[in-house]
Design goal:
Elements (H helix, E strand, L loop, with lengths): L4 H13 L4 H28 L6 H6 L1 H4 L10 H25 L5 H23 L4 H5 L4 H14 L2 H9 L5
Helix pairs in contact: 2-5, 2-8, 2-9, 6-8
Length: 172
C-alpha cells in the first residue's frame, strides 16, 4: 500500500506543528512582549484621548483580579501593575503560540498572519473569553474600540522575525 501525495503533505504539516524549536519560541515571547508594549501604548493613548486618565487602559486589565475598584480615578500602582502584568502575560503567551505556527521570517506572510492573529485575538480573546468575566462585562467596553488595538497587536507580531534572526545569529 502506498501513501498518496496528500497523505505525505498531511504528515509533513503535523511534523512542522510538532517541531521542537525553543529559539523560535523565545523569539515569539520577545515579539509578544514588544507587541504587548505597543498595544499598551496605543490603548493608553486611545483612553487618554477619549477622556480617561492615561493609566485607564492598564487598569482595565486589572479588572478580573481586582474588581471594579481597579478603575477608580487616581494613580493606583497596584491596579496599574496588575493590568500591565495581565496584558504582557497574555501577549507573551500569544506571541509564543504565533511563533510556533508561523515558520517563516518573510515580511508579507507574517503581515497576513498578523492580521489573522489580530482578528483571532479580537474575536476569541476579547469578545468571548474576556467578556465572560463579570467585572469586564460590567465595564461595557465597546468591541469596536478594541478591534484596532488587536490589529495593531497582530501586526506588531511581525517583530518575531527580527528576534528569530537575532537569536540565530542572523542566519535566517
Amino acid at each position: 500500500m502506498t501513501e498518496t501525495t496528500q497523505d505525505m503533505q498531511d504528515i509533513k504539516m503535523v511534523q512542522k506543528w510538532l517541531r521542537f524549536d525553543p529559539l523560535r519560541w523565545l523569539a515569539g515571547a520577545m515579539g509578544g512582549l514588544l507587541s504587548g508594549a505597543v498595544g499598551i501604548i496605543i490603548g493608553s493613548l486611545y483612553c487618554y484621548y477619549s477622556g480617561h486618565e492615561i493609566w485607564f487602559f492598564l487598569k482595565l486589565g486589572a479588572l478580573p483580579a481586582l474588581g471594579a475598584n481597579a478603575t477608580e480615578i487616581g494613580l493606583y500602582s497596584n491596579a496599574i501593575f496588575t493590568g500591565f502584568l495581565f496584558y504582557e502575560g497574555m501577549a507573551l503567551i500569544l506571541g509564543v503560540v504565533f511563533s510556533h505556527f508561523t515558520w517563516t521570517n518573510s515580511f508579507f506572510p507574517l503581515l497576513v498572519m498578523g492580521l489573522v492573529w489580530g482578528i483571532f485575538t479580537w474575536i476569541f480573546i476579547f469578545n468571548l473569553f474576556i467578556q465572560s468575566i463579570p467585572q469586564v462585562l460590567a465595564a461595557e467596553i465597546r468591541p469596536g474600540a478594541t478591534l484596532p488595538l488587536c490589529l495593531v497587536f497582530g501586526f506588531a507580531l511581525i517583530s518575531v522575525a527580527f528576534f528569530d534572526r537575532v537569536l540565530r545569529g542572523g542566519s535566517t
